[in-house]
Design a protein that fits this description.
By secondary structure, this protein is α+β, with helices and mostly antiparallel strands. It has 3 domains: about 110 residues, no CATH class; about 120 residues, Oxygen-evolving enhancer protein 3 (PsbQ), four-helix up-down bundle (Four Helix Bundle (Hemerythrin (Met), subunit A), Up-down Bundle); about 210 residues, Cyclophilin. Helices cover about 35% and strands about 15% of the residues. It contains 10 helices and 17 strands. It has an 8-stranded antiparallel sheet, sandwiched between helices. A hairpin with a 2-residue loop joins strand 16 and strand 17. The longest helix has 26 residues. The radius of gyration is 30 Å and the shape is globular. The N and C termini lie far apart (about 70 Å).
């Protein structure tokens, strides 16, 4: 308590003392760099009393004998302050410049910038997130070239072309075009590397070589389009190139395998070892969906990519329920930020009942960008990792989240939701969803129609149209 009161006293005293020094700077030749002063004081901010003492000594040595009473009193007050600070042990930070008096900025007031995308750009498209997070190397937070993952380096450079134009603009901005040219040229150079064929098995090499040759052709066109500042051709070729490189990288990943081991305690739960595509058909018993072309319909189809690479247990549980037709005919509940479904009508038990007659639950499953495997059962707050970033963040319209009881993160069963992402309401890496709920994929087609869903609308069907061969139960393929 005495230390706090003393700091408050110093806060009140310091500006007055320095003002007096500045008024006599021409006589005393005291160099005080005012730009280093800080008016925001925190308990962590410690006044550099050693530096101030040296400043006062320098002032005394260079001052004239005609010292006014006010200056003498100010020095006495400053000396008294220093003595109190020595007694209380406040301030021990070294300063190499004896002529500078400063209060260091509060470290507690500076929060590290979150990693929410690629370099300085925010990635907010589900398709793009899935391309960038394909685990051809882990952790995804590290430089892919340093890890020897040339494919991911090519992918990043291609995605940067799009991100620059989306978030900075292109019209009348030659610097942005020049940066896009550099990214396109870098991607074109890297795709010639023999490392692009790394980990691709002999039976897939012919297909990979064909894709690489096609990628070279498209990237040549992308470089030319960027140099001529042709935005329409650039956008078209960028999308084509990103898809081709993604397909090449996908060939390097073995089917039905993960780059890590899921804890044995979850062996009895379904696991998706890879990705799967689900077609979700939604119907409106009342009203119509309004399509982009102006037409209206009471039935629409959403394409969902379920990512078992980063959430094998959560994704496996969801795909298993889709195959069981568990969601067919279920109503949806629309809220401000989410559209929820998966709660059985009239059932006393809120979730899926397995063959044992009990509710099947799954643990909370989170994959941090810095990690090489998911973390289970603990929220990021409980795990003291709330400031870290995630491989599958809730920062895309149509992100898929698994619901659980607020009191226990390990009670998820069948309820899930579509996220109606709004950057103003769900800040990237700074929201209550990331780290507390499991994201297990994204809607990648017709996701804009989620905003038109309302209470009473229904899921007509959930069909697994691709990747069902990646579903395993107790170490064996389910299908």
């Amino acid at each position: 308590m005495r230390s706090i009161l003393l700091l408050l006293f110093i806060v009140r005293l310091t500006p007055f003392t320095i003002e007096c020094f500045l008024q006599n700077a021409s006589t005393n030749k005291i160099l005080i760099k005012k730009k280093n002063l800080r008016t925001s004081f925190f308990i962590e901010n410690r006044v550099n009393h050693l530096s101030l003492e040296r400043t006062l000594v320098l002032s005394a040595e260079k001052s004239s004998n005609n010292v006014s009473k006010s200056r003498f009193m100010n020095k006495c007050i400053a000396a008294l302050t220093l003595g109190c600070m020595y007694i209380f042990g406040i301030g021990s930070r070294p300063n190499n410049d004896p002529q500078i008096f400063y209060v260091p900025a509060a470290s507690a007031a500076v929060v590290a910038s979150p990693d929410v995308g690629l370099k300085e750009f925010l990635v907010k498209d589900g398709n793009e997130i899935l391309r960038l997070t394909l685990p051809t190397s882990l952790p995804s937070s590290e430089d892919p070239e340093a890890l020897g993952d040339i494919g991911r380096a090519v992918q990043q450079n291609i995605e940067l072309v799009r991100l620059r134009f989306e978030q900075v603009g292109y019209s009348g901005k030659p610097i942005i075009w020049n940066s896009a040219v550099k990214n396109a040229v870098k991607a074109r150079s890297l795709i010639d590397s023999s490392q692009m064929m790394k980990d691709i098995t002999p039976d897939k090499r012919k297909e990979a070589m064909k894709l690489i040759e096609e990628g070279r052709r498209v990237l040549d066109g992308l470089v030319a389009a960027c140099r001529s500042q042709d935005i329409e051709s650039t956008v078209k070729l960028q999308e084509e190139a990103s898809s081709i490189v993604f397909d090449i990288r996908l060939l390097s990943l073995p089917s039905g395998s993960l780059p890590y081991n899921v804890p044995a305690v979850y062996a009895s739960l379904p696991q998706l070892r890879g990705r799967a595509t689900v077609e979700c058909t939604l119907v409106k018993p009342k009203g119509k969906f309004r399509l982009d072309d102006g037409t209206q319909t009471n039935e629409v189809k959403l394409t969902m990519i379920i990512d078992g690479y980063h959430s094998p247990v959560t994704s496996g549980n969801f795909i298993d329920l889709c195959l069981r037709k568990f969601y067919d005919g279920m109503p949806v509940t629309a809220q401000e930020l989410i559209v929820k479904s998966g709660k059985p009508n009239g059932d006393k038990i809120d979730g899926f009942i397995d063959s044992t007659g009990k509710k099947r639950t799954i643990p909370l499953e989170i994959f941090y960008k810095k990690d090489k495997a998911p973390t289970y059962e603990y929220t990021s707050d409980d795990d003291m990792r709330a400031t870290e970033s995630f491989a599958l963040p809730f920062q895309a319209y149509g992100a898929l989240g698994m619901e659980h009881d607020d009191e226990d993160p390990n009670t998820a069963s069948s309820q899930f939701w579509f996220l109606k992402w709004d950057q103003a309401l769900v800040a990237p890496a700074r929201n209550t969803l990331d780290g507390s709920r499991a994201c297990f994929g994204y809607v990648v087609k017709n996701q804009d129609l989620i905003g038109q869903l309302s209470d009473g609308d229904k899921i007509s069907s959930m069909k697994v149209v691709q990747g069902v061969e990646n579903l395993y139960l107790k170490g064996k393929k389910v299908v």
